[in-house]
């Protein structure tokens, strides 16, 4: 998985960093630049034994739409509880993309969640709730992929950081676009030692490799040169994250997909809610602060899993 691990904060002004070129300031040109660069990245990672970790959001749908240019029947894998947002929307998005028959829906229940938690805790050596809630659906998707002789999953990792997708960015840009650019650069710099390490560790525990086309060096370079004002901006009366990425996506996916506001994987899959239910079933009370964390630590203790002392 490629990324930039040596990114430092660039000098910024209220619009963007000083070395932004004229093309990346032009809203009519940037979408095509994004599609061209990302398309090359996706093609680079395609292999006969790969699939897309698919939620139906703009990131995974864009990767899928570019991948099918070269692999028309590429497999899509979605994990979630029955009735969860990801399961419902992945089905809709796959149909909109003409890939209904390529979608593998891995529907999970509390038993699946409970049996997977120790595997993820052991792989990551942590019982941190956020890490586990993100790791569980990825681990299940990876084991499902492996059972189907798939050895690599393409993911949308990095898109939120590079293109301003997180909700908190909407608050940051109210201070200044320079503040948003600095926050994005800092978040991208943290990816290798946090998100990438976590996801690679979980996938490798199931025998799967991950590839993140958004984190290809050429895509990262382009994304960081795009002004922050094109990443979070008002659209239809409200601030929208990943604005310019959505504009780019409109050229290859239906607008219904491009402009959909998606929940993060741990929430969209229903895994976070499932962790809460398991914790309450184990006797931990919702009103107690950190009750999910306490439950996960109890699972680690029960299974005699050694944790990293810094976790």
Task: Explain what you see.
The protein has 15 helices and 7 strands. The strands form 2 sheets. The chain has a 5-stranded parallel sheet with strand order 3-2-1-4-5, with helices on both faces. It is α/β, with parallel strands linked by helices. Helix 1 (30-45) crosses helix 11, helix 5 (129-147) packs across helix 9 and helix 14 crosses helix 15.
Short description:
With 311 residues, this protein is of the alpha/beta class.
Question: What's the arrangement of secondary structure elements?
Answer:
Layout: H1 30-45, E1 50-53, H2 58-67, E2 75-81, H3 85-96, E3 103-108, H4 110-124, H5 129-147, E4 152-154, H6 159-163, H7 167-172, H8 177-190, H9 192-205, E5 209-211, H10 217-225, E6 233-235, E7 238-240, H11 243-249, H12 255-258, H13 265-268, H14 271-281, H15 291-302
Parallel strand pairs: 1-2, 1-4, 2-3, 4-5
Antiparallel strand pairs: 6-7
Helix pairs in contact: 1-10, 1-11, 4-5, 4-9, 5-9, 14-15
Which features does this protein show?
311 residues; alpha/beta; Rossmann fold; five-stranded parallel sheet; two-stranded antiparallel sheet; 15 helices; 7 strands; 51% helix; 9% strand; globular; disordered N terminus
Strand-residue fraction? 5-15%
Instruction: From the alpha carbons, calculate the radius of gyration and give it in angstroms.
Output: 19 Å
State the distance separating the first and last CA atoms.
24 Å
> How would you state the average pLDDT, rounded?
91
Helical stretch tally: 15
Overall shape: globular
Number of strands: 7
Q: For the record, what CATH class applies?
A: Alpha Beta
- Which residues form runs of ≥5 with pLDDT under 50? 1-16
CATH superfamily: HUPs
CATH topology: Rossmann fold
Based on helices, strands and strand pairing, what is the structural class?
alpha/beta
Helix amount, in percent?
40-55%
Biggest pleated sheet: 5 strands, parallel
Architecture in CATH? 3-Layer(aba) Sandwich
Q: Can you write the helix and strand succession as a string?
A: HEHEHEHHEHHHHEHEEHHHHH
Could you give the order of strands across the largest sheet? 3-2-1-4-5
């Amino acid at each position: 998985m490629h990324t930039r691990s040596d990114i430092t904060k660039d000098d910024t002004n209220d619009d963007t960093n000083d070395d932004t070129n004229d093309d990346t300031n032009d809203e009519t040109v940037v979408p095509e630049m994004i599609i061209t660069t990302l398309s090359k990245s996706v093609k680079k990672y395609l292999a006969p034994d790969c699939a897309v970790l698919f939620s139906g959001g703009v990131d995974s749908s864009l990767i899928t739409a570019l991948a099918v240019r070269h692999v028309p029947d590429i497999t899509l894998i979605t994990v979630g509880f029955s009735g969860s947002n990801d399961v419902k929307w992945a089905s809709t998005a796959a149909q909109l993309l003409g890939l209904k028959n390529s979608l593998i829906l891995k529907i999970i229940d509390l038993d699946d969640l409970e049996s997977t938690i120790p595997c993820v805790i052991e792989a990551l050596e942590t019982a941190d709730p956020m890490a586990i809630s993100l790791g569980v659906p990825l681990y299940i998707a990876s084991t499902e992929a492996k059972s189907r002789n798939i050895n690599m999953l393409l993911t949308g990792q990095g898109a939120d950081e590079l293109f301003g997708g997180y909700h908190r960015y909407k608050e940051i840009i109210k201070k200044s676009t320079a503040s948003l650019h600095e926050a994005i650069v800092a978040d991208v710099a943290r990816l290798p030692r946090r998100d990438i390490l976590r996801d690679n560790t979980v996938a490798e525990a199931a025998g799967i490799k991950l590839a993140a086309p958004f984190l290809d060096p050429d895509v990262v370079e382009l994304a960081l040169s795009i002004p922050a004002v094109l990443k979070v901006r008002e659209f239809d009366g409200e601030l929208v994250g990943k604005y310019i990425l959505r504009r780019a996506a409109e050229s290859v996916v239906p607008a219904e997909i491009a402009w959909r506001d998606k929940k993060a994987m741990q929430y969209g899959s229903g895994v976070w809610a499932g962790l809460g239910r398991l914790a309450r079933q184990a006797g931990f009370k919702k009103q107690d602060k950190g009750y999910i964390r306490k439950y996960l630590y109890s699972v680690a203790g029960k299974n005699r899993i050694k944790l990293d002392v810094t976790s």
